[in-house]
Amino acid sequence: MPSLLAVSELNKRFGGLVATSNLSLDVQPGETHALIGPNGAGKTTLIAQLQGELRPDSGAISFNGADITHEPPHRRARLGIARSFQITSVFPEFTALANVALAAQAREPHGFRFWKEAANDPALTAPALDALKTIGLDNRASVIAQDLSHGERRQLELAMALAMKPKLLLLDEPMAGMGRQDGQRMTRILANLKSSYAILIVEHDMDAVFALADRVSVLVAGAVIASGTADTIRADPLVKAAYLGHRG
Amino acid sequence: MTFSLFIEQLLNGVQLGVMLFLMAAGLTLVFGIMNLINLAHGSLYMAGAFFAATVFQISGSFLLAVPIAVALTALVGGVVERAVLRQFYARSHLDQVLVTFGLILVFNDAVRLIWGVVPVPLAPPEALAGSVHLFGGVDYPAFRLAILGVGALVALGLYFVVSHTRIGMWIRAGASNRPMASALGVDVELVFSLVFSAGAGLAGLAGLMAGPITAVQVGMGEPILILALVVTVIGGIGSIRGAFVAALMIGVGDTFGRVLLPPALGSMAIFMLMAAILAWRPKGLFPVHG
């Protein structure tokens, strides 16, 4: 089966700092692929290049068989790549439902529907509510986003990504800043999503990574140093030395 | 101050506020979404007035001049955005100030070249040439009342578009968090081009409505630009609601400041008001960016 996402020989430098170094990686349809690595390994930079916010210096990214290396972010979103940000970035003054509705319309054909009513359009609010239900946040739909708890905002972000009906979910530390309970809740939610989406997830919570991932790749200094099943990665001496070792 | 003078000045203040709102609406969204400071917004105000004066001279109809001048100004705005300003979104504010200041000079000289240095006449439509008797024995020019009405309608329309339609949702999302909006599939550049053109059209509308009251002449956009910048800052950059509230405040404040205070203080009144408001709320009355 051809890869859903294929990254080949990607390079990105910021001045003298190498953020991505000859990186190749793929995500298969239906696969949950986890990306781990120490801080500063270039995980978020990679996600930003996949989503289009940053342009690589060289290399190629293909998605669903098409070269998207030079596509801007909004085109990639329409092709089916959804990203949840590492820094919580919902629209604070919108309600939870309006946040998700905004994401839902991303998948609609552009057309000339600029003037259509947005807030009460069932074509937007119905899929938005569905996404909130999937995440278990539907009872908070009418709450203004800035009044949600941190954990709820992270969930809301995930609901926004789902409402885009993506083929690929890029999740950048979905458990960041969460307590143990919220983290476990998020892990359960993601475990439920696993069967419906291809997922590339960056996460520091190793319990979550090993519970969710079909495949784990280890990123150190902008390059993949190992890639394999959770068990292979746990046993890999290189990985132990470079990464897991630090965690004692 | 007599009651009738008070009412008259109040109406003058609200009318100035409405004009300022038309100017500030485009300015605040452009600043809010693309982080672009556009000093040449006053030139679009001037362009609107000159376009209207020309159409008026040819056709003799003010009503015909309005839509044509607004459309032409929106077009000029769109061309300037594509040709020049688009290259400056990612640059520093100093670069933006320099290039848009340069645009002011270019626009002023272009207008001198085309229309000359003598003010161009632009008369209000005949139906609105007289005065209207209001309550309390106040006589008020009908044209100024019409400006008030048009401004209020545009403000309502803008409010509806921004808060209820899809493009409004994109505009607010783009103003609040640009990378996130584009990650959600919003073509922020396209939205911005539309917003810029619409903002230019509104500035043109303000200019052509001011034409019969002040004078259609080179440099007419600069004084109102300064007031519009004050409105944008007080209202909170990127906020239409903030621009509306602040425009009325500044319009009324400036008008009464000039009537009630000694001349030197009167012209400073709004800047003192701005300083006081910013000391209290540094991001303006209705901050958009979290």
Using the CA coordinates, give the radius of gyration of chain A. 18 Å
Overall SS class of chain B: mainly alpha
CATH 2nd-level architecture of chain A = 3-Layer(aba) Sandwich
Order of helices and strands of chain A: EEEHEEHEHHHEHEHEEHH
CATH class of chain B: Mainly Alpha
The overall pLDDT average of chain B reads 89
**How would a textbook summarize the main sheet of chain A?**
6 strands, mixed
Question: Averaged pLDDT of chain A, please?
Answer: 86
CATH topology of chain A: Rossmann fold
Percentage of residues in DSSP E strands of chain A: 15-25%
Q: How would you sum up the major sheet of chain B?
A: 2 strands, antiparallel
List low-confidence stretches of chain A.
Answer: none
Structural class given helices, strands, pairing of chain A? Answer: alpha/beta
Oligomer: heterodimer
Detailed description of the structure:
- The complex is a heterodimer of chains A (248) and B (290).
- With 248 residues, chain A is α/β, with parallel strands linked by helices.
- Chain A has one domain: Rossmann fold.
- Helices cover 35% and strands 24% of the residues of chain A.
- In chain A, helix 3 crosses helix 4, helix 3 runs parallel beside helix 5 and helix 4 crosses helix 5.
- The model of chain A has no long low-confidence stretch (mean pLDDT 86).
- Chain B is mainly alpha-helical and 290 residues long.
- Chain B has a single domain, classed as ABC transporter involved in vitamin B12 uptake, BtuC.
- Chain B is built from 12 helices and 2 strands, in the order H-H-H-H-E-E-H-H-H-H-H-H-H-H.
- A two-stranded antiparallel sheet of chain B has the order 1-2.
- In chain B, strand 1 and strand 2 form a beta hairpin.
- In chain B, helix 9 crosses helix 10.
- Chain B is globular, with a radius of gyration of 19 Å.
- Chain B starts with a helix and ends in a 10-residue tail after the last helix.
- Chains A and B meet through helix 2 and helix 3 of A and helix 5, helix 6 and helix 7 of B.
